[in-house]
Each structure stands twice: as C-alpha cells, then as structure tokens.
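Query protein
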Amino acid sequence: MNVTGIGSASTYYYNVNTKRLQSSVEGEEDAFCKWYNGDLTEEELPDTFNGFDKNTKRDLMEMFDMYLNELHVNVFEPSVNGDLCEIGVNIIDAAHSNYSINGKEMFYSEKGFDYTPEEIRTFGSAELPYKTRTRKDYNPADNSINIAVGNVYDLGKGYRLAVRDSYIYSTGYGNGSEEDDAWMNLLVGAVNDLIHIGDQHWWTDSIDEEETPVILDFLKRLGVDTSRPFIINETKLEIVKGRIREVGNDGAIPSSIYHAALKRYEEFMYRPLKEKYNHMG
C-alpha cells in the first residue's frame, strides 16, 4: 500500500443511500474507507497509515458535517451509477489540502502547527539586534542589497542614517525644513522595520501606509528598482497594491520561520499511526 503524503491524490465514492464511503464504483472498501465507516479501529490499520491519513479522515468528517448539519446544504448529489457522489482528495503540503465533490472544489483544509519558543521569541520582537552584518552594495543582476549593521547613508541636506547594532541612529535635524525633519523621523522607523523584515524577524505589515512611500524613496536612492521583485538582506520582496510584501508569503509569519516549522510538522505527519500504540505496549 502506498504511503499517503504530500502530493497524494485520491478518489472516493460516497453512497448517498448507505451513507458509506467506497474506494471503487463497484462498492469495494479499502482500509481507509473501512476506518472512515467505523468498521476498523485505528489500532487495526495497516502499518503504512500515518498522520496524513488521520487528517484526511478528520477533514472528510468535517466537510460532511459542515454541509449536511451546519449549512443544511446537500451538495452530495449522485453523479455515478445513480447513487454515488465522487469525492476527490488532494494533499498540497503538510498543512493544506483540497477536497472536491463531483469534480468541483468545495472544501479547503488548513491545519495549524507549533512554533518553538525561540521562534516565537524571534518574530515580532522589538528587542532583537539586527542579523545582517555583511555589507553588500546594490547588485542590479538580482536587484538586491544589504542594509547591514555599520552602514551609513548620506541623505543630503546634512541628514545621515547609521545602522547600529539594534537601532537606527540619525543626525542632521534642523538643517532642513520642518517637513524634512518629519520625513527623517518617518524614515528612521521605516528603515528599522525594513531591516527586521529583511532579517526575517518581522512581517511586512510592520511598514504601514504612511511609511511605505518614504521607504520606497529611500530604496530608490540606493538604486533598488521597486517596480520588480527586490531583495533586502536575502529576503525577496515586491510591491503589491502599493504595499511591500514578501514574495510567496501571504501570512503573518516570516517565511524562513514558517517553513522550518512546517517541515517539522511534515516529519511528524509522516510518522506511522502505529508508533504510538507500539510505544504504549
């Protein structure tokens, strides 16, 4: 029997008359269906069954309950042989799966997973020192630059920014207009936010709408082309609807932390369900 995991795609058939899950049109029930239908206990499952199988069973139960008992919408219309509804299962990754009913996607499952205390301490903390300490000038080949500890930026009109260990030191106030001083105040906070985002400490909403044009102007001064994806301190960013976003990351967790936690969860999900019973024996 194949091991269920990332990329697995399965098709089952729900008999609307018997209310049972089948593995074939002819009425066969494999071990998963027998487990789902209550004819096998978890202890009786084949050794190959793992956390992905358990999540699939839980998701199917939740999907049926949602439509039949909560929404009171019967979407399980027979499409095969007059009494069978086709159910498709597609496991995207350890935390995400899609479920279809008669070929139409109808249910999306997203599972939560744990972060280590160190990871939790890292993202969003205002006390962390900056991580990037290697100077790297602008590289037009990949539109990248490092804003590193020790860098000093001359902004004209006597204004200067210096990247210290964990904060931005600024000078030159009073050399320009009140508007220039206000711009400098915004820039200090925005550059601090950008460094933490690039260092994978914070998420991109740390730069608010007021700071965004200020930081884009600063990046333009450094030569960065923000009309296309750009890389700050090894983190790939882009402008989406006028806001800075991490490429490929729609969540609130920096991608390096998210993917490390997701990988641990994936390894846990591949563990056979029988392991816990063996350890109990």
